[in-house]
Amino acid sequence: MAPSRAQDPEFITPDYWEEACRHLVKKDRVMRRLIPQFGDARLHSRGDAFTTLARSIVGHQISVKSAKSVWERFEKLPRRLTPANVLKLKVDDMRAAGLSARKVEYLVDLALHFDAGTVHVDAWNDMADEMIIAELVAIRGIGRWTAEMFLIFHLLRPNVLPLDDPSLIAGISQQYFSGDPVSRSDAREVAVAWAPYCSVATWYIWRSLEPLPVAY
């Protein structure tokens, strides 16, 4: 399913969103309650693969609010956020923006891969989710979680279930298990009703926890 342009030309939104919401409202009692709370808000892609992956690295294991703050400082460092320009940045300046030493290393390695053309950006639209994940995790600092964020937020794939995401697990715990601990098996069982729109349900679970929209 192809993405469609939102009113803001900077963003691309999935054309399956309304169909997904109808499916989830019909199949899942929690989604029936959550989805109406957020009106027309929906997942969107900025359409730039490098930026999406960089934002995922910056946001890994920190809150949406903290990630937004660090990213805003980081993206002001280069004149324009491109792989080549990131490679010109000073490590001290990147650290001063709030990035850990490890995340600086990861961003540099990401920029090196894009600058050298060793990632197959033009082929991703035609590749299966697991094939894309396998290519991305070969880049230093990109694990399965980051690759899944890329599938959701850049390629707008509809049926990604990021079980390594702590916010998803916390949200499922709150919304489905009254705050009791949740295993990956529990989460998978809940998500059976979400398929084939696990990405959309995950987005609403995130929104139930964070007032700020999740975006990369």
UniProtKB/TrEMBL annotation:
Belongs to the alkylbase DNA glycosidase AlkA family. GO terms for biological process: base-excision repair, AP site formation; DNA alkylation repair. Its EC number is 3.2.2.21. GO terms for cellular component: cytoplasm; protein-DNA complex. SUPFAM superfamilies: DNA-glycosylase. SMART domains: ENDO3c. Transmembrane segments: none annotated. Residues 58-210 form the HhH-GPD domain. GO terms for molecular function: alkylated DNA binding; DNA-3-methyladenine glycosylase activity; DNA-7-methylguanine glycosylase activity. Pfam families: HhH-GPD. This is DNA-3-methyladenine glycosylase II. It comes from Pseudacidovorax intermedius. InterPro entries: Alkylbase_DNA_Glycosylase/TA, DNA_glycosylase, HhH-GPD_domain. It catalyses: Hydrolysis of alkylated DNA, releasing 3-methyladenine, 3-methylguanine, 7-methylguanine and 7-methyladenine. Keywords: DNA damage, DNA repair.
